[in-house]
Amino acid sequence: MAARPGSRRETRRINTLEIMTITLPSGQPNERFIRYVRPPVRDDDDHPPLFPLRPATRKLRLGIDVTTVPTPPDGLLAGYLTRDEIDVQLLLPEDQEVPSTWAALLPTATTVRVGFTAVPESWPMVLAFSVGFAADSETRRTRGTAEFFPAYQLADAQAAPASAQPLNLSQRHHAAAYATVAAKVDIDVIVTNAPTAGRPDVADNDLVVAVTPDDAVALIGLHLRMTANPVVGVQRGALAGDVGSWETTLTTRTIENLYNWGLVSHMRYFEIFQALAARESDSATVTALKSIRVRLTRAARALDHMLAALSNPLNNHHEADVIETAAEAFDRELLYLAAAFDIYGRRYPLLIDPTRDPKNFRQSLDGKGYIRDHVEKEYDAGLLVDVQRLHVYATVCKVLRNHIHDGILPVNQHLGRSYGSTRNIALNLDAMPELLPGSTAVDTRLTQAHYDSLGAWQADPADAFATTMKVADLATAGVTLLVSGLQLIEEFTKVILRNEPQTAAAPSPLLGCLTAPPEWSEPPLHERAVLYGALFGYHPV
């Protein structure tokens, strides 16, 4: 017979449960999940683990456009071109010899001679234009042709944004010829100083992306991180008397260190904040800043995973896996960014008044009214211009995070051009009224510049009877939200460290603790910080 709720028997049963003794076993648990493969007994290259943290990926193949990069470029890139992880091929006109400086740096590099000068004015734009090429290495010779349709470059020119730097058709044709040949010889990235580099209105960047030498360093950095390679620098040279050679390496030892050091390499105020808090024995602020830093590095790792997933083809066999992998990584990025904003948003009011009860201050930095309610009254508007601009992106992050909690972010592939069949993985803005232009629920602070930087566009329907859809490119949104998040945290930290709050009665001594004369300017970054920042490419130059 069951005991009545509140009866003596029920009371005795509850009391018995309350005094039940729990004994944790000493030395090892009584139960343990063991259905996973253990690491090999011998830890060496001949006995790799089943699922290595450093996967066996191929080399990154760079094609150097010698017509626009006639000599090894100044800066960091040249130091990476001789790395074992990089396969460099020299792209040059068919009647040109390899420049001596390139031959000296890369004596064994594959040369790819491109038989292209220009598309004749009389050429019918709707017909394919053939480009011959000859690829020669120490062990292999390849001859072939590649094709592109000049009509597409004309369509690109007509669809280019009015604010974009003008490109003439010859520049677009050059990019098309080199991209189609690069695709034929399996080049991953074209390194060029041509004005078409990195241009979203050049569709040939969808085939083989063309980047500047500086942006190539960031791609190399992604390759190092995704292959768990902590060696960020290698220098080689010959010993005196030609009796041998020497090599030195610069390593972060772990990928965790690479993220931890690299991501904040340009965030000097945020980085010094932790040291200042430690000096003041403010352990709560030290802990909060450490936690923010970890969340930011994990957000960056998630973004790297998304970009890596996008290197896989969207075909009938794997498109669902590519979309799911990219979408899941984007979810992680958003959640970690939101966590960083939560921690900072809750910590700041306690710096304004350290006597406050933390339980009563649970606001987040990404809250729509956070700057208005907590920051504007303490600092002049002129100090908050960048904070206000960047804060809008944080509120976008919050909207997306809330949609993750409510359900599933609407991520799918959509037509990425007004012609052709190129598809991009994108967010469906139509399904999120808070981000839909013209909606009554949208944040009125969102401007054209915000939507452009999030990669928003009206995607043409993929099916005959479908309608257009407002979407945002997933890669663009992911990079923009991370970059703006890093900048927001750095700019906000700069404001509160360099300026005393105006209305706080007894704030933390950390607020306004950094002072400088009016003529003072920030010193240049340390060369190591410059290197780490270049390998990530997530900080403005």
Nutshell version of this structure?
By secondary structure, this protein is α/β, with parallel strands linked by helices. The protein is built from 14 helices and 13 strands. The chain is globular and about 90 Å long.
Task: Give the topology, please.
Elements: H1 8-18, E1 60-65, E2 86-93, H2 100-105, E3 110-115, E4 129-136, E5 141-148, H3 150-159, H4 169-184, E6 189-191, E7 209-211, H5 213-226, E8 231-238, E9 245-251, H6 255-263, H7 268-279, H8 283-309, H9 319-352, H10 370-375, H11 385-406, E10 411-415, E11 423-428, H12 448-453, E12 456-459, E13 469-473, H13 474-498, H14 527-536
Helix pairs in contact: 3-4, 5-14, 6-8, 6-14, 7-8, 7-13, 8-9, 8-13, 9-11, 9-13, 11-13
What would you say this structure looks like, in words?
The chain has 541 residues and is an alpha/beta fold. It contains 14 helices and 13 strands. It has helices at 8-18, 100-105, 150-159, 169-184, 213-226, 255-263, 268-279, 283-309, 319-352, 370-375, 385-406, 448-453, 474-498, 527-536; strands spanning 60-65, 86-93, 110-115, 129-136, 141-148, 189-191, 209-211, 231-238, 245-251, 411-415, 423-428, 456-459, 469-473. The protein has a seven-stranded mixed beta sheet with strand order 5-4-3-2-1-6-7, sandwiched between helices. A four-stranded antiparallel beta sheet has the order 10-11-13-12. A two-stranded antiparallel sheet has the order 8-9. Helix 2 (100-105) links the parallel strand 2 and strand 3. It starts with 7 loop residues before the first helix and ends in a 5-residue tail after the last helix.
List keywords for this structure.
541 residues; 14 helices; 13 strands; alpha/beta; globular
